[in-house]
Each structure stands twice: as C-alpha cells, then as structure tokens.
Amino acid sequence: MTLTSLRHRGPLTATSLATTLAVLTGALFAASLFALAVGSVSVPLSHVIAAFTGIGNVTDPERMIVLVIRLPRVLLAIIVGAGLSVAGAMLQAMLRNPLAEPYILGISSGGTMGTILVAAIAGSAGALFGPAASFAGSGVVMLLVYMLAHRRGRLDPYTLLLAGIMVGAFFNAAVLLTFALFNQELRNAFLWLMGNLSSAQMDSLLIAAPMTLLGVALGGFDARRFNLIATGEETAAQLGVNVRALRKRTYILASLITGAVVSVSGVIGFVGLIIPHVCRMVFGPDHRMLLPSSFLLGGAFLVLADTLARTVIAPAEIPVGAVTAALGAPVFVYLLRRG
Question: Rounded to 5, what percent of the chain is helix, strand, coil?
C-alpha cells in the first residue's frame, strides 16, 4: 500500500482516518527501529528487540547503546519533529499560506534568544528556566510579527510572512551578538544553536513532551475551524467561527509548541514547512487528517534526518538542523515559485 493510495476521496470517514493513521504509526515505528539499530556501532535488529523484551541474545554494551544512548534521542526526535510539523500546519491554516512555519516566521529564533539569554545570565542555573524563557521569546516574536503585519486594522498574511523573516533575522543577529559577548560561557552551545539532538536525555523529554503534546492536543480541537478558515475569514465568521479568538489561540499554541522543542533541540528549520505540505499533497487538505498525519510523519522524518546526521560522517556527526535545511530549502523555493 502506497501513501498516495491512502488519500481519501470525498468526505473523510472514520475508516479512512484510522487506516491512514495506522499506516503512518507503522512507518514511525519502523523508522524508530531503524534509528535504534544504525549508528557508529551497528546493532542487529533482533538484538534491538531483545534489548526491550529481554528475550534473545543481546550484550550489555548493546543494551546500553539502545536503551540509554539512542532511545532518548529517538523519542526526542519524535516529539520535536511532530511538534514542529503540527505547529507549521496550524500556522499555514490560519494564515492560508503554505510558506508559513515556525522557523520562517521567526518564532524559533525568538525561542532560541530566550534560552541563550537566560543561559548567559544565569549560567548552569538557567537550565531550570530555559523552557519558560524559550516560550517567552517565541511569544514575543509572534506578537511583534502580528503587530507589524496589521495593515489598516486587518492582518495581511503575506506581510506577516515578510515581517516574520525580518524579525527572525534580527533575533538571529541578536543571538550571534550574545555569543560574542559571552563567548566563554556559551562556547559549547554553538552546535545546539544549529539544531542538535546529541545531548538528548530522559530529562529533555520531561521538559519538551508535556508542553508539546498539550499544544498539539489543543490544536487538534480546532481542526474543523481550520477547514472553515480555508474558505475565507468572512465565510468562516458567517459559519460561526470566532476568527479573532481562533487566530490568537493558534499563535499562542504555535509559540508554546515551538518554545518547548527549541529549548531542548535548538533551531531545527523547515520541518514545519516540508511535512504539512507533503501531507496535504498526499492525504488532502482536511485538517482532521492533516494534523494527526503531520504529527506522525513529522516524527518519522526527524528520526530519519537525525539518523542521517549522526551516521553520514560517523563517528562524528553534523547538526540535524543542517540536514533539514538542506532538504527544506528546495521545497521553500518550489512553493515560492508556485506563488
């Protein structure tokens, strides 16, 4: 069964939704098993399974590699990829623009600035306040972009996109300036700035997973409203959608999700652009399908991207943000040329 064959035609049914999500869940599970087995030290798939079940042959070093080193990283990649993908899908729905996503709108840069600033001021104690600072930074950027995009009392989606790029560039420059001023304290954070999951631990999951899953779940309740927004804000308002409240709620949830994942992964761009667009092409525009499929496919995508990042020049590794940027930039250009 191919992904294209899963695209539903006509009204979305519970059967088509369940079938698609079951296939995507299987794909995510397969990608996770592959990531657990592949690395600078390869572990046979049967040994990976034995590490979890306790049935079969697996050595103690292999068990440690799978359960202690790779499992937290795979789980964090799932949370980060899923969160960024859903945040991108929500922003694209609200702005009716396929180019919108947390990285391009500057939300990721704001979250990074918040985390870096707290680390520079508070040192190691700043880790306790990192997620809150990241969420605050993401929220500040979203508020700035929102204010700049208002023209004659109305929100212009294209002006908002350009404002996001401008504000994001400003905060990226501010991050680099902070590095220059606090060079000794922040030297080890450089790879994190480029998007990196190498420091993944269960503590990172405890920080990112609850906030991300909460934001994703709350966003899922608005799936039908996002479908109505696609027909136009005036039409949606006539059909009972409180557009102003939905817009504010979407921006807050997108900032919450982005802030949560940026605080533990750094800036990983273009995931929120690639995955919703692929899901929209394959499964259709219905957000009741688009949001959960973006969640699952986004998690699988970042697991595979991170596996590539840590194996292509093993035993060294490249930042996963570089991999997603290399894949996402052509997609951005393609969508831009399509208008």
Answer: 75, 0, 20
